[in-house]
Amino acid sequence: MAAQSSPTEKPLNSDVEQQRVIIKNKYGESLVGVLHETGSTQVVILCHGFQSTKDFRMIRNLAEVLTNQGISVFRFDFSGNGESEGTFQYGNYIKEADDLHSVVQHFSAMKRVIGAIVGHSKGGDVVLVYASKYHDVPTVVNVSGRYNMERGIAERLGKDYMERIEENGIIDVKDKEGNDQYRVTKDSLMERLATHMHSLCLLFEKDCRVLTVHGSADEIIPVEDAFEFAKVIANHKLHIVEGADHCYTKYPSELADAVVDFIQESLH
């Protein structure tokens, strides 16, 4: 994998060097990320959610807490998001899992050990899709991922989304001011609807440890989805953060503690 790295922004943790790293995915697009280098052999990879980036507050907070424990962290933008090349696409779980695989291969080629992959929201689903397709990471953390992919679509696209996509082939999603946010194609919508988390979770390796963390007050993805993951994933731990919303706005330390404790258990 072609890649380049260089010193970057002021570190979150002043004792940890941050390096800007660019990795080519299998489609020839540059994925831009930041490596928090503690010198550890282990690297934890953090994956952002829908319409988010590697610089999302929660992702940066997790990076800081993990590096405080001496664990190196890599946070990056999926293709079509943030600083990475490519076109933003709705759905796109398989391609984003492939992006993640390019990142894993890059660090594996550098003789680093991928200690865990962690994803928030859509990123939570991406790390689970990854675990079903590739079997080279022993620890997976799903933070507030969606189990039922049919839910949440009407809230974003409108209740008549199927009729509109069949008629026009596309749906342009606008913000409250009427500005275009992103385009949904029929293929991307069908890919999301065809992403059956139940079936995918049955494909995990038996020794792959999975943690699901979810806020009890999540209004974007209901906490019931977390309980569904707990029913189907064999080697699974469930942690509910009471009172937390989708982004753990008032509970960042509770989220970080659950994630770090689980990863440290796995590494040891």
From TrEMBL:
InterPro entries: AB_hydrolase_fold, Hydrolase_4
Highest taxon above the source species: Eukaryota
GO cellular component: cytosol
Occurrences of domain Serine aminopeptidase S33 (ranges): 42-150
Protein name: Serine aminopeptidase S33 domain-containing protein
Taxonomy of the source species: Eukaryota, Viridiplantae, Streptophyta, Embryophyta, Tracheophyta
